[in-house]
Predict the structure of TonB-dependent siderophore receptor.
Amino acid sequence: MNFSRTPRPCSSGANAGRRGHAAHRVRRALAPTVLALGIAAASSTLQAQSAAPVNAAASRSFDIAPGSVDTALDMFARRAGVSVSYDAAEVHGKITQGVRGTYPVATALEKLLDGTGLAAVAKMDGAWLVQAATPSAGPAVPGATSNTLPALTVESTRERETATGPFAGYAAKRSATATKTDTSLLETPQAVSVIGQNQIQEQGALSLVDAVKYTPGVQAGTDPVDNRFDSLRIRGFEPTLFLDGMQLPYGASLYGRPKVDPFTLERIEILRGPSSSLYGSIPPGGLVNFVSLRPPEQAVHTVQVQTNTFGRYEGAFDVGGPVDKDGTVLYRLTALGFDGGTQIDHTKESRVLVAPSVTLRPDRDTSLTFSAEYQRDNGEPQIQFLPAQGTLLGNPNGNVPYGKYVGEPGVDEYSRTQAWLGYEFEHRFNETWKVSQKLRYAYLDTNLFAVAGAGLQPDLRTLNRQVLSAPEHAENFTLDNQAQAQFQTGAIAHTVLVGLDYRWASSRIALGFGTAPPIDLYDTVYGASIVHPPVVQSTSQIQNQVGVYLQDQLAYERWRLTLSGRHDWVDTSTTNRLANTTATQNEGAFSGRVGLSYVFDAGVAPYVAYSRSFQPTIGTSFDGTPFQSTTGTQYEVGIKYQPARSAIAANAAVYTLTQSNALTVDPAHPQFQTQSGKVRSQGFELEANAEIAEGLKVIASYTYTDATVTQSNGADLDKRVIVVPRNQASLWADYTVQRGPLRTLNFGLGVRYFGQTYGNSANTVSIPSNTLVDLAFGYELGQLSPKLDGVRFSLNVNNLFDRRYVATCTSLNACYYGTSRVAMATLRYDW
């Protein structure tokens, strides 16, 4: 398919501020871009007044630096005021020497394509088609006069794939998560997986865990039915969640975690390995970056309803498009609501969500997008803490029922309110420089009151219980300023990114803990009197992080070298509100990354990479010395395969990752900890996303992870990290009938295998391996009647054979069942 880059019409000239310390940091972070914003506004007005389309014979001044052909063609179209169409796969990986000087449009395009193996064909409407320079390609510029396109050429008015936009099928070609620039995944020297809306919809994903369960390197669903958070590990470590490149708010406990609904997303991107060189404080395993749905250039209208076998009902809609005929104002409004049961008896959950966004484009070089989201979740907590005897191990009284609820109906409660508001601004000054700024304020309120298991009594049927209370509030303010330049030094093309970001975060929790009356697991009677537990911990924390970073992506012939470095200053203040004491920590950290790859014409790119990460650790040792940040160091070797003219993407990576300064027991003072611990994760990951035949799409992955505690003063020395299997494998295939009366009918079938794990640090609780099967079915009802055009019915069944399994245990008193069979029907209407 050809993608088109068409300059947007220019608009007329008429279209053309928490605590003192934190506020000071905000002003300091904002200062570098205040001038840039002013210049951008002035530049926008001037360009809006002066820019106008030209014909092929008219001359324009060009200053397009050497670099990738696709980026250069976009710059050319914008500068020349013409439409340029090309096949993204055909130009992928090709390098142009650029064009500088004043030339007729046709001549400039010829110079731009010189030596690339591409040629341009003039079209009847004054646009240009760029394609391989073959005898059948038609006359090339500058003397091109042909008005006939080659046979079988298909055009689309949609722009080429971008790092934040949609993509067809399962194989994304571009991403910004690893580099913060719009970069080809083939040329990115780090393991990145991208899950797009096509995959989310076809697999019926309702959560992050659902969406990533066919992704390598990710241990998903260790506690799949717990509604407090999405349980996830990447290369053995819990990741940090980002939205559009900025960190979401986190509470200080496990109870305060954000959850993002996949219906509001364009993509979910998994960046594996240490990545502090661009993002600052994150765990060594990597991060998850959610990419929001953005206001579209072409109108979208979607309404859908869903229901499942647990009695859940959901309604959702997504509408958006241009507000005016020139497309200078775009909008989008996404909303959903659901309510219903879960696989656990006596529990329900509900959600109300609304996400509006507006994009302003006063001229072709400037955009400003405002976005907001509000989400409210309610329901009963699904913590459980079931005993190993009766779930993982045998029990003379039988197995604990899969839907057993050990809390108290009408007493337990879990709620989450999360909201954010922000903007993204971008302005391009010329073909070399552009600046951008992202800003967001977000907050997260969670309230947990739960009765949960606390171990079996000797009769192996009476369950002791505990009561937990954990209201928590978290918020953050994030700001990321960037300047990007594309230029050439000799034969080397550069994409340089300079950035300064700031994050202010706070959290506050009051943790209560007590005992509750026991229950009989096998003849349960509810209605016990539950006393609100006393507060045993009450803390508040404020953290400021300022980081400056520099990245250079160098291209020399087929070589690609990525260099990035960042320095952070992190101040943390933690207050014990019960003891009325405050501890402060101030530290700085440098993080770096270097990656080298070689891109062959066949779409093969081997690479090597080294990267580091850091993450502040709160607390002190016995002598009162504040803990230093834990650090991560990784060596990675991989190969990527993404041939032109195909919907295939395959990646393989081998890595060794070490986390240092991990906390472990102080042998001289067992009530305290020291930072002498070390964890090593090493492994192999294989991923393939492809359309291997017309209508047949496949996702295949394999993961080998050896995550081991290599230094420790505790029982976990030389033991495997809990809940991380050595082996995982998955295969998903989806086939859509292409012709005949059953055209658009599709079937999907998936198999997921996850190997044996351990449920405690001493590795004495072993959890066996499991294999699950998923099924999908869909049909466009417009094939039955024109009146139903745009209506699609789909059915998704997870755990088709209702495999009963224990997902994980964290001790003999805290085991979690996996998800039982659940079928979900969806009726969707797009127009």
User: Anything to note?
Assistant: The helical segments are 20-50, 69-80, 88-91, 105-113, 197-202, 208-211, 276-279. DSSP finds seven helices and 43 strands in the chain. The first strand starts at residue 2 and ends at 5. The first helix runs from residue 20 to 50.
